[in-house]
Amino acid sequence: MDAVIGVPYHLDEYLPGLDVPLDVGHTVSTQFTSDDVWNRLAVLYGAVADVVAGVASRGERPVVLSGDCTTALGTVAGLQRAGSVAGIVWFDAHGDVQTLETTASGYIGGLPLRMLVGYRPELVAKRLGLRPVPERQVLLVGARDLDPPEVSYLEHARIQRAEVSGIDQASLPDGPLYVHVDLDVIDSAQLPGLRYPAPGGPGPGQVTDALRRVLGTGLVAAVGLACTWHAGNDAAARVAPDLASALAES
Q1: Which domains does the chain have, with CATH numbers?
Q2: What is the pTM of this model?
């Protein structure tokens, strides 16, 4: 059984009108008392981890909807508290393996996968009790818009890579799995309003077919859906039926 959890934030920006493709059963929100972004994120993701751990401990599968990818830090921390998650399957048009030392933009949303494998744990991970996931236990799917430092890192990292169409059980890390889908993995020509559009990607049906294949293995402990779009473009409505169907079948 799935428990759909809404985290209506883009980083520490509260988005009460975030357009999401599934009906939310529980919403995580918090009050911030610090001006430091890392303190704020640690508070928010600690609350996410608490909810995810409770859901997973009851034998339900958390499905976490948020406005960014960094929320995955809280989701994986919660799964670890519940004794679950060995590997990560990360669907994204971007690598999300930047560092504060290499990023040209300074955008924190470009760091979460790198943080999940152990980068700068003092920023958030230590505060959540989040243990690093070994690089060899990560599969990055559909990444095509990579900055030069990300290309260099991935050339030497043990993170595996695949195209959306190339996913099968043999390509997956050991389970249980956290499956993260940044919906900007979909071709930007077919999904309007994305914050960071990337052309040349798969269509919505191809992405949900790949998600079905992963879910069908029975290895998935939790799903994260990053709704990384601006409001007012009906993006959620375009992907909602296929996503709901894929989750219902598993």
Answers
A1: 2-249 (3.40.800.10)
A2: 0.98
